[in-house]
Amino acid sequence: MADSAGLQFVSSYAFEAMQKVDVSRLAALSDPELRLLLPCLVRMALCAPADQSQSWAQDKKLILRLLSGVEAVNSIVALLSVDFHALEQDARKEQQLRHKAGGSNGESILVSQLQHGLTLEFEHSDPLRRLRLTLSGRLKWRVFLKSSELFESPVYLDENCLPCSPLWMWQRLCFMSAMETGFCVWVANVPDSFNEVCRGLIKNGERQDEESVGGRRRTEALRQLCQMNPSQALNIRAMVVEECHLPGLGVALTLDYRPDTPDEAVSPLVSYVSGLLLGTNSKVRTWFSMFIRNGQQRKRESSSVLWQMRRQLLLELVAILPRSRSTHVPNNSGMEEEPGSGYSGLREEHVVKASALLRLYCALMGIAGLRPTDEEAEQLLQLMTSRPPATPAGVRFVSLSFCKLLAFPTLVSTPEQEQLMVMWLSWMIKEEEYFESAAGVSASFGEMLLLVAMYFHSNQLSSIIELVCSTLGMKIAIKPSSLSKMKTIFTQEIFTEQVVTAHAVRVAVTNNLSATITGFLPIHCIYQLLRSRAFTKHKVSIKDWIYRQLCETTTPIHTQLIPLIDAYINSILTPASKANPEATNQPITEQEILNVFQSAAGGEGSRGGRQRYSITTQLLILYYILSMRRTCWRAPNNWVSMMQRKPKSYSAALMDQIPIKYLVTQAQGLQQELGGLHSALLRLLATNYPNLCLVEDWVCEEEKLPSSSPRLMRILEHLTLLSPGDLIPYAEALTASMALLLEPAVPRRILQTLNKLWMGLNTVMPRRLWVMTVNALQPSAKLLHQQKYTQNDLMVDPLIVLRCDQRVYRCPPLMDIVLHMLNGYLLASKAYLHCHLKETADFDRQTQTVSNLGVPGQPETPEVTREELKNALLSAQDSAAVQLLLEVCLPTSEEQQLGANTESLLSSIRGSVPGKSKQGSLGPRARGGVEDAEPEGGLLSDLREVQCLICCLLHQMFIADPNIAKLVHFQGYPQALLPLTVAGIPSIHICLDFIPELLAQPQLEKQIFAIQLLSYFTRCPSLSVARLAISVMGTLLTVLTRAKRFSFFMPILPCLVSFCQAFPPLYDDVAGLLVQVGQVCASDVATKARDIDPLITRLQYLKEKPRGAVAPGGGSSKLTLPRGWQRSWGELTLMSSSATVWRPPSWTSSPPPCTDYRHRYARGRAGDWTLINNPSNCL
């Protein structure tokens, strides 16, 4: 039996020797230390080893020599001589018996009936029985949780723990007094089980170890184990955090930890606790915060791990405090030390550690709910109000100290402390510029002071809380009511609003401002002052500061730049108050804007110079200009009436010198670095310059042309390899030579290459390119007079684009350019008139007021009238452009002689229809043989290509504004263009919606045009509209005079054929209409042809007779015409030998299609249709 007096702590040296089986180090141990390791050493000496090497044989001899002089070895040898295999079998049976339902507590296989008590029986037993008693007690405790007197004293530790695992040993002995050391002794004898024991104890431990006696003893035991094996201390601490158990153990191990190379900056305790509270694992943060809160509820105890931690942190805080600091504030507060003096100066090597301590205390107080003692609060305030050196770390420390004062104002409780804080804030204001220049940082604490002062003046306490949390890097709960004292100090003693605005203008701009610069910058302060209108209220000019900051920007763009520009524009256009309407900021001058774009890459002004300003600056200035124009247009009238001077947007001459399209194209490739600036520019561009947002420009694809032999072609192909920005120097030469390409025999490839180069230039300099192109394509007579149009001329009158050389109308590549410019200038004209309307609204209102002065009862002209006039002008402008383009589609006399016609497109789309071909024209097959001989009249002629280009543009215009289509068709256009427009403009089907309205017009010309237009809608017909047209024709038949009836029915009678083809149910209605026409005509010629009555009777009989009736005898019914009918209608004889007979398909009785009113078909008795020539006499 071991002597308990010999038990002591196992040193880390002895445990390491046992782990590594270093016999030489074991031999150097003293006898008391060696006595603690006897069980393991005896096993090593007596058991057969797995290592049969010669070196181990020598080590074993050394171990036997060490054990030879120890008397206690004999008892341990006797224990190891037991038959452990038989003992294991009995233990298993005992275990099964204990778990059996109804098993008696007194039954046992390992131990028979005890005659004495367990302890006395143990003393008088041999080694085998002692082991059986130990196992029996162990199983008895496991099943019935009964106490055993054998394990209540450490005297029997050597004998009874051989058959037990270390983990079970502690689970049973954790409530025994003074057993931690004995437990460490047992683990030292089984060193390979160290990690398993520690993990098991932690996993089965309490979540809060200081709340129970067992938890505290478990923590103390694990702490001693780690002292015995210090190399595993950090691993054990990681297990604690992983399981979220025993938080006091983690702190205790950190307090005990002594690194080999200590970090002078931050202590292990600060790093560990900061990682728990400021880490990303919310479960760990909540677990440790609960440890802090629960620990504060108990009375202060020196043995408490929490109070040990707080004491250690306080010692570290005091150690870095300046030696000369004191809470006593000298009466002569004007005696301030110069920067770098020794008074209250924080040493440079302590700045980082001080910042870490401040953040840790913020986390302990804000997240874990730590309530600082008076001593802690005093020392914290001393640290926060100390003056660090002018380094980046010092700037960071001052910012953290300032935010901690805002987050926990209760640290300032006495007047002396409040005066100390005011002096420190005054020092911050004074030394801000020195710190920024000496530390070499862009984000200083001066901007934070200004920002907080502005928030206090505008009562934005929530913004201050967000600022504090973001600076400290943690989310803590701050009550807005707790900031009342700080608000009073800031707004009344330190920063008045006038001082804030005056100081903000003197703050230097941030060089190379970008999103990579974090922290609080001057731009944040200026933005808040702009929002609160502080500059305009105190008449402080901020224009120069904003301009300098915009010029000092780079990519990636800072997120505060766009809101800053928006707030600046709002302060320019919106008065601060009604009482002072002129209290607005000054806009950036045009000369300052020109300085930014003079050396812009791809600019339309001076080229080849050095690019002084970055692309970010140019894009921001462009955003400012476009946003300024849009805001001027949308300025409410109450703003304008408040201001004595009307805000004006920048002049057109300035805008002409800015490469807008080039800059937007450059921004498209920098979308990741520009954030939302590119999308904002596109939105503004669509509002201000819709002519620069054409769909064709965005979907234009690059294509390379094959090489050609002519020198001019090789030059043009070389230009196609250049980027659009590199083509700018050649723009003037290309446009000036366009007129030369209108000469005959110019290769089509040259024209196409020129078109491609022009479209490339259009992506970077569209407005200047358009002006040069319009001037270059003027007719030769105008070129002699040197008439040059300007950008403003073309926006006022976009139809100038169509006043070009007539040869352009038959040159498809150049016509494509002309149509592109026309579409752009039509959109630009809309934006120009809208801007002009907004700019002159106030002047017109004043003029109207003066003119109405002294005239009672005369109302002012409403604003809507000017808007309606503008819309009417735009509609007239668009419709005129459409009418001119439709006129271009008409073939000239020379083209008509070559066989060009406007119906070829419709016929090519509809396909080959029998009988539809016009007399004198070739069908598709016959025409195929002469296409090569007559290219001008074929499908690939220049006229056809120009017609397709024009139809595409008209299609887009009709989709953009369906009212244009309605207006153009109410105006009408040549009937010869109807086949072209219906077949070539897909969106023309919208005309079906207003054809009934067109039929209701009183002019016969419009009614005729509506019916003719309807007859061409074979792909999307409308039965109701066609029936309405027939009804209108029937109505007009009864009300028109003979002359008007002739002029009305002659053009529209061919349309009835199309109606019947599209809707066979209309046969009866059409036949009835024809009967009515015949009756009216018969009444007109009754005096000349009396024998017309039998014919009318016969026609009425045919109308009333059911269709498809069979004559008696099974034969077909035959029509017998009277002889007088033939005499009166000599030219319409049905029996003429020259008549062309056509039989319809079996499923219909409709006549063949025919579009010429001079040729009609009449149905014969055999069901055939006979061609009739010149039926004009019938009307």
TrEMBL record:
One of its GO terms (cellular component) is integrator complex. The keyword Nucleus applies. Keywords: Nucleus. GO terms for biological process: snRNA 3'-end processing. It comes from the Eukaryota. Residues 909-934 are annotated as: Disordered. InterPro entries: Int2_metazoa (IPR026236), INTS2 (IPR029321). It is found in: Nucleus. Belongs to the Integrator subunit 2 family. This is Integrator complex subunit 2.
